[in-house]
């Protein structure tokens, strides 16, 4: 074996020192969820800074020729007792702020490790420690030491991706605090025993800092809280600031500004309290702060415990397909959705072979293999008594960063709507699986909409693609109306013992609302050439292999504050939708003429030569650049917010004649596979498109970085050109277009053969699977909390006739699956 110093000198040119902006993957393997704590540790390539587990580093070496790796192993230190049983440290505090990783917020668990690092040279796995470097030539010692130190001190990608500080309670100084007017009315407030001056309520009591009036706070959406007397007092007097009695301590108190409509800071609070005889330094906290109440209200009594099955002893489960996922900070919506998706055979078959066969599997394949293999479904080293069922699990940091990149909501650590994330992920799959198998076809189905003009009785049939059936919640159909009214009456009378009654809604009522005809009052009829009334009936033109049903629990109150309907729906285990099969045009039924509505034009432009009206085919004055179409900006914005490209949204609105979001969405769904889907809108008669811009020179450093990952130079060139020479975007692009890259034949000029052929005919239409409309329930996602902006998600999945609850890292056999409280329900077709 060659001398280690000589070997290191021979590979010295491939060893780089991390620069600011370099992405150092030192916490997780690029192809698996192995980490420095895993058996064998983690190997970080000292050229590309990609990390690899012990089972994948030889594969990377064989494909790239890279030999120098920075090897990191970590061993967990013994955990100290959290309850201060002789450790000398205070016990953990409960969160008092809606924050992560800061004082008063939720603690980000920082495990303590002993770390061992060294350089390993492949293929012989020769090891070099820091002590060994001291005896080597200066040029070797300096370069390798700087690279090792740079890797150690660089922020890992997982650390960068995780928002370490998220604070939902950043309070500002009130503009009224400095010059607050206080009345000399002789009012003195006792240190305890407060009651509302109007209704005698003893909880949620606020004192106005101008006149000392003691009143109850706002009523919450569920009837709890107060009776709004403090708010009514502000509306009558205009006195802006109030302090919550019971939250006053030497450190401060809850102060609310009704004028600014927010919790605020009052730098003169001791002076303002002293005016009414309150000594802030002697007060003790007896009431929960507003933030504590907000945290508590996310754990709604009954719903939280029932959905998590907190009242029963759950049996932990381990093995393939039973892997937990770590919560990265409000990522439970992602965890729940992905657990269900990787129960679907299409997603399983797409992911697992990709990881084992492709040299560079996409992030979903890595996630799927991590969930299905069982390699990480092992008990946590120190789960603790309260965390029964906790696993080592996997932390989907890279996956979350990939699917959230560029999205205003999913790129943050805020709580999100699981249904919106499911559609967002399906759209990503649709965009990136055009040339290969597409697992989202399992959910894709066609909807037939039949519109009948009431004046002419002629019909129009259209079809659109959809992935989710949305069922409305009809509160007026509740079967326990008397109980609901009685509970509401007792709450209004201030009865604190009034029970929480949940509305019982029949599932059949929700389905009936879906199938009933909808009245359209502003329908443009081509038969009468005017707007009139029409009816729209919706039916299934095809039945998918897997059906997703969303219960539309989330709505807006009269004050436009999002809230959730607390309902119980008797969702069945089996479903037969055969009666909702579309029938198409009926014998003797006349169709509405295929005539477009009047063209949309800028109103201040004189109309000349409009085709079909006053002009002819040779007169293209209609298409003058000055005669640009008027597009509905609100519809364009709504489509963009769904994740579609801007130009595609503009074309959808243009080609559907500004007839609304539904028509534009139908156009998008039927044209997603068009080669020019994202190309700029080109009006008829104009040039076919912008001229081809000269390709900018590509960064040799970026090319070298991508090539070091095992891709060819032509593939790296294609990726950089597709992403405007931005390295991070190019890496993401290349991993999401592997099917295209594996089969492409790139010429010397960098254009693939497919590109050189010019345009190709668009596909005939979206592929859908069809079969009988009989289904059985196999999974459901549940939400706990008051709105999509807060709370927690879990999912229940039926595995081998056993319901299993997936609650982030906890995976247990379910004893009482709360099927009536779900939000998203997943059905699969029953075999003939």
Automatic annotation (TrEMBL):
Domain of life: Eukaryota
Family annotation (InterPro entries): Papain-like_cys_pep_sf (IPR038765), Peptidase_C19 (IPR050164), Peptidase_C19_UCH (IPR001394), UBA (IPR015940), UBA-like_sf (IPR009060), Ubiquitinyl_hydrolase (IPR016652), UBP13_Znf-UBP_var (IPR041432), USP (IPR028889)
Enzyme Commission number, as recorded: 3.4.19.12
Any Gene Ontology biological process: proteolysis
Recorded catalytic activity of this chain's protein: Thiol-dependent hydrolysis of ester, thioester, amide, peptide and isopeptide bonds formed by the C-terminal Gly of ubiquitin (a 76-residue protein attached to proteins as an intracellular targeting signal)
GO cellular component, one term: nucleus
Binding-site residues for Zn(2+), renumbered to this chain: 196, 199, 216, 229
Keywords for this protein: Hydrolase, Metal-binding, Protease, Repeat, Thiol protease, Ubl conjugation pathway, Zinc, Zinc-finger
Name of protein: Ubiquitin carboxyl-terminal hydrolase
Organism of provenance: Labrus bergylta (ballan wrasse)
Phylogenetic lineage: Eukaryota, Metazoa, Chordata, Craniata, Vertebrata
Domain UBP-type per the UniProt entry, residue ranges: 172-280
Amino-acid positions noted as binding substrate in the UniProt annotation, renumbered to this chain: 206, 218-221, 256, 258, 261
Residue ranges of every copy of the USP domain listed in the record: 323-830
GO molecular function: cysteine-type deubiquitinase activity; zinc ion binding
């Amino acid at each position: 074996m060659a001398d280690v110093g000589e070997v290191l000198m021979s590979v010295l040119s491939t060893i780089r020192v991390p620069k600011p902006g370099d992405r150092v993957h030192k916490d997780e393997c690029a192809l698996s969820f192995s980490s420095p704590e895993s058996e064998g540790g983690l190997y970080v390539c000292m050229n590309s800074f990609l990390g690899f587990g012990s089972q994948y580093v030889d594969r990377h070496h064989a494909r790239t020729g890279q030999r120098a790796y920075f090897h990191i192993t970590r061993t967990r230190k013994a955990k100290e007792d959290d309850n201060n049983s002789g450790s000398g440290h205070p016990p953990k505090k409960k969160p008092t702020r809606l924050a992560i990783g800061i004082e008063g917020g939720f603690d980000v668990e920082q495990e303590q490790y002993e770390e061992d690092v060294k350089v390993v040279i492949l293929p012989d796995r020769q090891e070099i420690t820091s002590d060994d470097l001291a005896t080597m030539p200066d040029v070797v010692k300096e370069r390798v030491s700087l690279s090792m130190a740079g890797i150690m001190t660089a922020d890992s990608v997982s650390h960068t991706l995780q928002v370490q500080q998220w604070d939902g309670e950043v309070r500002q100084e009130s503009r009224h605090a400095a010059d607050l007017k206080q009345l000399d009315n002789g009012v003195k407030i006792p240190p305890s025993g407060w009651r509302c001056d109007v209704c005698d309520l003893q909880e949620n009591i606020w004192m106005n800092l101008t006149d000392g009036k003691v009143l109850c706070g706002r009523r919450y959406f569920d009837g709890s809280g107060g009776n709004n007397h403090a708010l009514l007092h502000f509306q009558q007097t205009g006195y802006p600031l109030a302090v919550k009695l019971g939250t006053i301590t030497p450190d401060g108190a809850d102060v609310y500004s009704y004028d600014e409509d927010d919790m605020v800071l009052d730098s003169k609070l001791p002076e303002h309290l002293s005016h009414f005889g309150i000594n802030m330094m002697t007060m003790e906290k007896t009431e929960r702060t507003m933030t504590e109440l907000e945290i508590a209200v996310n754990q709604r009594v009954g719903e939280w415990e029932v959905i998590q099955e907190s009242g029963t002893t759950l049996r932990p489960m381990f093995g393939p397909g039973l892997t937990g996922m770590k919560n990265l900070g409000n990522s439970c919506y992602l965890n729940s959705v992905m657990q269900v998706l990787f129960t679907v055979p299409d997603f399983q078959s797409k992911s697992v072979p990709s990881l084992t066969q492709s040299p560079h599997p996409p992030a979903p394949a890595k996630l799927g293999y991590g969930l299905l293999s069982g390699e990480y479904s092992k008990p946590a080293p120190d789960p603790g008594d309260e965390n029964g069922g906790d696993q080592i699990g996997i932390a989907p940091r890279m996956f979350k960063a990939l699917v959230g990149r560029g999205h205003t909501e999913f790129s943050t650590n805020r709580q999100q709507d699981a249904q919106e994330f499911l559609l967002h992920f399906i759209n990503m799959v649709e965009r990136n699986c055009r040339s290969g198998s597409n697992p989202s076809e399992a959910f894709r189905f066609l909807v037939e909409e039949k519109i009948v003009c009431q004046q002419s009785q002629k019909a129009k049939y259209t079809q659109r693609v959809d992935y989710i059936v949305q069922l409305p919640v009809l509160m007026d159909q509740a079967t326990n109306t008397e109980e609901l009214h009685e509970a509401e009456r007792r709450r209004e009378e201030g009865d604190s013992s009034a029970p929480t009654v949940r509305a019982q809604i029949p599932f059949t009522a929700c389905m009936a609302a879906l199938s009933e005809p909808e009245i359209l009052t502003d329908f443009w009829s081509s038969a009468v050439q005017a707007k009139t009334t029409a009816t729209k009936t919706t039916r299934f033109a095809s039945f998918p292999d897997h059906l997703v049903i969303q219960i539309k629990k989330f709505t807006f109150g009269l004050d436009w504050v999002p809230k959730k309907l607390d309902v119980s729906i008797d969702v069945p285990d089996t479903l037969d939708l055969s009666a909702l099969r579309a029938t198409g045009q009926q014998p003797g039924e006349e169709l509405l003429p295929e005539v477009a509505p009047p063209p949309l034009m800028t109103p201040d432009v004189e109309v000349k030569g409009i085709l079909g009206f006053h002009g002819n085919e040779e007169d293209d004055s209609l298409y003058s650049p000055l005669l640009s179409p008027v597009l509905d900006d609100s519809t364009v914005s709504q489509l963009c917010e769904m994740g579609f490209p801007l130009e595609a949204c503009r074309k959808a609105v243009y080609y559907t004649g500004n007839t609304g979001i539904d028509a534009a969405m139908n156009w998008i769904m039927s044209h997603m596979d068009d080669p020019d889907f994202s190309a700029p809108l080109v009006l008829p008669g104009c040039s076919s498109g912008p001229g081809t811009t000269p390709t900018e020179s590509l960064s040799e450093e970026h090319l070298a970085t991508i090539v070091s990952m095992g891709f060819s130079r032509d593939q790296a060139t294609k990726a950089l050109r597709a992403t405007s020479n931005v390295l991070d975007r190019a890496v993401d692009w290349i991993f999401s277009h592997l099917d295209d890259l594996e089969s492409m034949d790139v010429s010397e000029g960098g254009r693939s053969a497919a590109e050189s052929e010019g345009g190709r005919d668009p596909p005939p239409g979206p592929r859908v699977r069809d079969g009988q409309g009989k289904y059985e329930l196999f999974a459901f996602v549940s939400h706990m909390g008051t709105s999509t902006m807060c709370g927690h998600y879990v999912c229940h999945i039926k595995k081998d006739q056993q319901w299993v609850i997936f609650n982030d890292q906890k995976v247990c056999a379910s004893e009482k699956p709360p099927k009536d409280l779900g939000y998203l329900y997943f059905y699969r077709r029953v075999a003939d």
